[in-house]
Amino acid sequence: MKLTLSGSSAVSTPSPYVIYGPGLPIGGDYGTILTYFVNRGRPTYGFSGMAPGMAVVGVEAFNLDFVVLAPVVYLFLDQSMVTESWYYVYRYLYGTAADEISPPANTGPVSGSPGPLTLISSNVTVQPNNGFFSPCMLPKSQGAMPLQGVGKMSLSKIPELFGNPMLVQVSLGHAPVIGVSSAW
Question: What is each CA distance from 136 to 8, 26, 111, 112, in whole angstroms?
């Protein structure tokens, strides 16, 4: 698959199965989960109004679908919250778009997590690294968007999908753009 970055030549992007979650922990403490994403240069978020150690949302990549950059994220919740994981996905990841987007029916915790944070999968029947959520809503942040425009589209012309007040940015990073509909 080829993508043309604004002001540069075409670059080849790796397969999404190589990029999505290599070495992704299925759980652990807050520091372990945060370190995984920070070491990969990915931005992370917490839930607004909650202690930081209760939830981690890590942006793995951005999927370019037509003219919309859709974040591909992993969600980790405190074990005390996993039984209501569907609610937290609905309320916090889909945020202001919750009227239009519902979490997948197979949403739930991945088994075998050492805790206290547990990976929540969009489909508990697939491998954990394939259990990402996309599309979802992120807050406005230049520190989380890809570094440059993609193709003929400038990031300033992306439809307003960002602005979720339910997430608070914890760390900066620039997740890569993977490709057209690779995550859906």
Answer: 29, 20, 23, 26
Q: Where are the beta strands (DSSP E) in 5-160?
A: 10-12, 27-28, 44-47, 55-65, 68-78, 108-109, 117-121
Q: Would strands 117-121 and 27-28 be described as parallel, antiparallel, or unpaired?
A: antiparallel
Cα(22)–Cα(110) distance, rounded to whole angstroms?
16
- The structure tokens 């959520």 sit at 133
For residue 21, the model assigns a pLDDT of 80
CA distance 46 to 44: 7
Amino acid identity, residue 45?
Y
Is the pLDDT at 169 greater than 60? The verdict is yes
- For the whole model, what pTM was predicted? 0.79
| Two structure tokens written together for 73 | 């994220």
Contact 113, 24 (CB under 8 A): no
pLDDT digits over 20-31, tens only? 788 899 999 999
Query: Beta strand pairing status for 55-65 and 177-180?
Result: parallel
Please name the residue ranges forming H helices in 40-128.
85-88
Q: Is the pLDDT of residue 3 over 60?
A: no
In the numeric block, which tokens belong to residue 119? 């990976």
Report the distance separating Cα 55 and Cα 2, nearest Å: 35
| Selection from 136, 132, 49 nearest residue 90 by Cα | 136
